[in-house]
Amino acid sequence: MLQEAKDLQNSAVTKLVNILTNGKKEYTFKAPTGSGKTYMMADFMNRIITADDDIVFIVSTLSKSNLAEQNYKSFKDLSENGIFPNLNPYLINSDSSGEASIFIPTDYNVYVLPRDLYKDTAKLKKEGTFLNFLQTMTSTLFDTSKGKRIYLIKDECHIATNNLDELQAFFSKMINFSATPKLSRRQNPDVEITNEEAEGAKIIKKV
After folding, report:
1. Which helix (H) or strand (E) holds 90?
2. How far apart are CA 35 and CA 180, in angstroms?
3. Residue 102 burial (CB count, 10 A)
4. What's the pLDDT tens digit per position in 179-204?
5. Which of 30, 60, 72, 191 could link 112 by a cystine bridge, Cβ 3.0 to 4.6 Å?
């Protein structure tokens, strides 16, 4: 990748990290399709976790086209290859659970959640597994362990979803990622890589 492309991505992630201190709870990051959004998401999470290992991420991803699994594999590869070594990702998956209850371990710092796994008819919600997980992660156990803070990332946030809205109290920050955020849902970009910037840096071809 050209240096100007790397510089553009790095600058955007730096801006996103820096604005988290302005007191808002929800932020929106806009970048064109093909500009390396998953890479920048991983970079963002790695920087936050490096600075504060009491922060855990949940990445809510569209269930279609195995997008959640693709994101999980990307995060895992970037971690194992030493690019973002502090990422420790886990894919929440009910496919292999059969009749047994779903188990979510608590010793990871990035949890990729296929969006449709948490809905009224899904085992993850009906059995209270995900709610219990959030309660465990954010609680102070035995007065010796400080509870974690959870940042929710909504990948492809322009696709309407309210699956996790009832759980907002558990999330310290919520970050929307999309090429086309919905202004009608107040997804006004706080950080943006424009098409022109991405073209100029040769990240994408001319739109």
Report:
1. strand 89-91
2. 13
3. 17
4. 888 877 778 899 999 999 999 988 87
5. 72
